[in-house]
Amino acid sequence: MPIMRSVLLAISENRWMRAHGQRLWFVRRAVSAFMPGEELEDMLRAAATQAPHNIGTVFTRLGESVTEWSEADFVMRHYLDAMERCRSAGVGSEPSVKPTQLGLDMDAGRCHQNLRALAERARQLNSYLWIDMEQTAYVDATLEIVRRLQAEFGNVGVCLQAYLHRTMDDLAALRLLGVGVRLVKGAYSEPPALAFPRKADVDENFFRIAVAMLAPLGRPAAFRAVFGTHDAVLIARIRAHCKAIGVADSALEVHMLYGIQRAEQLRLVQAGVRVCVLIAYGAFWFPWYMRRLAERPANVGFVIRSMFAR
Ligand SMILES: Cc1cc2nc3c(=O)[nH]c(=O)nc-3n(C[C@H](O)[C@H](O)[C@H](O)COP(=O)(O)OP(=O)(O)OC[C@H]3O[C@@H](n4cnc5c(N)ncnc54)[C@H](O)[C@@H]3O)c2cc1C
Question: Domains in the chain: how many in total?
Answer without folding.
Answer: 2
